[in-house]
């Protein structure tokens, strides 16, 4: 999905009208993910906090491999990088996931410092 659709959106009501015309809930979710990514990129609070913000399908393969995350969608919509990934991850993310399960891993990587 290309984020050109946002050129015509000036308020939340415009966005809702746009997504209501989409063919399915997957398309609606994709549109919301793009909106959220752009929010992180333009809001001064987040723009100064994160060096990079990616949708899962945009993250460079080397970073995905470093994080030991699969390309397949496991419910991660966005990945934001602030400094080094090492600051956020357990020493061995794969084993942490195996021990704690997806919810534990998600809670760990999603928490704020």
Describe the structure.
With 113 residues, the protein is mainly alpha-helical. The chain folds into two domains: 10-49; 50-113, no CATH class. The chain has helices spanning 12-20, 25-42, 44-49, 61-67, 93-110; strands at 52-55, 78-81. Strands 1-2 form a two-stranded antiparallel sheet. The longest helix is centred in the first third of the chain and has 18 residues, at 25-42. It is flat. It starts with 11 loop residues before the first helix and ends with a helix. Residues 87-91 have low confidence and may be disordered.
Could you list some keywords that capture this structure?
113 residues, mainly alpha, 2 domains, two-stranded antiparallel sheet, 5 helices
Secondary structure blueprint with pairings:
Layout (H helix, E strand, L loop, with lengths): L11 H9 L4 H18 L1 H6 L2 E4 L5 H7 L10 E4 L11 H18 L3
Antiparallel strand pairs: 1-2
How would you describe the shape? flat
- Taken together, the total number of domains comes to 2
Fraction of residues in helices? Answer: 40-55%
Low-confidence stretches: 87-91
Query: If strands are numbered along the chain, what order do they take across the biggest sheet?
Result: 1-2
Q: What portion of the residues fall into strands of 2 or more residues?
A: 5-15%
SS-based structural class? mainly alpha
The gyration radius over C-alpha positions equals: 16 Å
DSSP helix count? 5
